[in-house]
Amino acid sequence: MENCVIYARFSSHGQNEQSIEAQVRICKEYAENKGFDVVNLYTDKARTGTNDARPAFQKMIADAKTGAFQYILVYMFDRFARNRRDSIIYKEMLKEKYGVKVISALEPIAEDEGGEFYEMFLEWNAEKYSKRLSKRVRDGFDTSIANGSFCSGLVIYGYELTLEPIPGKQGKYTKRIVINEEEANVMRYVFEQYDKGVSKKQIAADLNAQGIRVKGKPITHKTFDNYMKNTKYTGEFYFGERLCTNMYPAIIDKEMFERVQQRLASNRYFLGGKETAKEPYLLTGKLFCGHCGTEMVAGGGKSKTGKQYYYYECKKKKKKLCNKKIEHKDQLEKYVVQNVIAFLSDEDNLKVITQDVLKYFNSRTDESEIKSIRKRIAEIQKEADAATNAFIEAKS
Questions:
Q1: pLDDT at residue 246, rounded to an integer
Q2: CB half-sphere exposure, 68, CA atoms < 13 A
C-alpha cells in the first residue's frame, strides 16, 4: 500500500473550520478508494495560497525528504497554491527530488500531455481567481471606509459597535462604531490629566479610587499606554495605507493628543523602568558587568540640588546580587568611543575587519546559486505561460 499525506487550507472570509473538515473528509474518502494509507495531515488556517509563507505547508515539504509518503492529496489544486510559480516549482521539486506527486481529490488528471495542460490551466485559473478575489476584497474595504462603516479588527476602549439597518434590505445591517460615553469619559480624563502634568501612576490611583475598572481589572500606570498613542481617538487613523476619517468619532482634540504624544516621548521608559533623559544610551544592549556578566542597563536620578544625572547599572546590582558600582554614562560612552576610534585608525585592524565581514557575507550568500535559482524560475514561468496559452488556443 502506498502512503499519502493530506494538505488542507482555508483563507477567505467565506471559509472556516468546517471547510477544513470537509476537505479532509473528502480526501480521506478518495485515499480509501485508491488504496492509499494516510500517514499525516497538514492544515493551514486563514493563510493565503498566493505565496508559500505557510508553516504547515513548509513542514510538509520538509517531511517529504524522509520518503515516508509518495503522494500529497489535496481537495483541489488551489488548496496547494494559487500562485503558478510556487505551484510549478514545488511540484517539480517534490517529483524530481523526492518522488512525491501532488494529486487532487476532485480534479483527476490524466497521465498524458493533455492532463499536464489541464493541470496548468487549473493553476492559471486559480491564480487569476485569487487576484480577482483580492481586488474585490480591497474594493470592499475602500467602499466601507468611504461610507464610514466598520471594516474589521478590535474596537478600542471608549467605543462600541452598533448595527444600523440597511434601507430596503430585510435583516441586513451595517456595522457602525459609536462612542461608549462611560468609557469615553475615562479616556478624556486620562488625556486631560496627563496633559496637565499628572503622572500616569497618579491617574491610575485616582481612577481606582473612583471604582473604575478596565476589563474587570484594577487600573495600573500601564493600562492606557497603547490607548494614549492611538490616533483613533482623534477621529483619524490608517487602515493599511487608507486614511480613515469617518469611522471612529473623535473623543480627543488633535492639539491635546499631540501635546500628550510629546510628553510621552519625553518621559519614555528605558530598561530598568526609570524615567531618563531624551538622549539615547549608546551602550544599551552592548554593555555587560565585569563582575557577574549580567547586562548593564540605563539608570538615572537627581541630586539633592535637583541636578539630573545618568549612569549604567548592573541588573543584579539593582536586586543587590552584585557589588558592581554604577558607571557614569557620559564618561563611559566617551571612553568607549575613543577606544573604537583608536582601533579603527589602525590600518591592520581595518584589514582584519574587512576580511571578517566579507567572509561572513560569503558564508551567508552564494551568488551563483541565487542566479541559478532565478534563472530556473524564469524558465519555468516562461514554459508555463506558453503551455497555458497553447492549451487555451487549442480549446477555442
A1: 80
A2: 12
Provide DSSP, 62-86. HHGGGT--SEEEESSHHHH-S-HHH
Shared domain for 156 and 134, answered yes or no, is: no
Domain count, the chain: 4
Residue 318: how many CA atoms within 13 Å on its side-chain side?
Answer: 17
Please check whether residue 396 lies inside any domain of the structure: no
Output 35 or 383, whichever has higher pLDDT.
35
Could you give the dihedral angle defined by the CA atoms of residues 268, 271, 273 and 279, in that order, rounded to the nearest 10 degrees? -40
Does this model's pTM top 0.70? My answer is: no
31 and 110 housed in the same domain: yes
What does the mean pLDDT of the chain come to? 79
**What is the three-class DSSP state of 298?**
strand
Q: Who's near 117: CB < 8 A, 6+ residues apart?
A: 387, 388, 390, 391, 394
C-alpha cell at 315: 541588573
Which region, left, alpha or beta, applies to residue 357 given φ > 0 means left and ψ of -120 to 50 means alpha?
A: alpha
Let me know whether 122 and 152 are in one domain: no
Output the domain CATH number for residue 213.
3.90.1750.20
Residue ranges making up the domain that contains 260: 184-266
Of the candidates 80, 70, 69, 75, which has an alpha carbon nearest to the alpha carbon of residue 105?
A: 75
Phi first, then psi, for residue 6 (nearest 5°) are -110, 135
Q: Are residues 250 and 291 in the same domain?
A: no
Question: Could you tell me if 244 and 277 lie in one domain?
Answer: no
- Please answer whether residues 71 and 2 qualify as being in contact, where contact means their C-beta atoms are separated by less than 8 angstroms: yes
Q: What is the pLDDT of residues 37-46, one digit of tens each?
A: 999 999 987 5
CA 246, CA 266: separation in Å to the nearest integer?
A: 31
Q: What is the CATH number of the domain that holds 117?
A: 3.40.50.1390
Question: In Å, how far from its chain's centre is CA 245?
Answer: 25
Query: Measured in Å, how far apart are the chain's first and last C-alpha atoms?
Result: 41
Say if residues 182 and 164 touch (Cβ distance below 8 Å): no
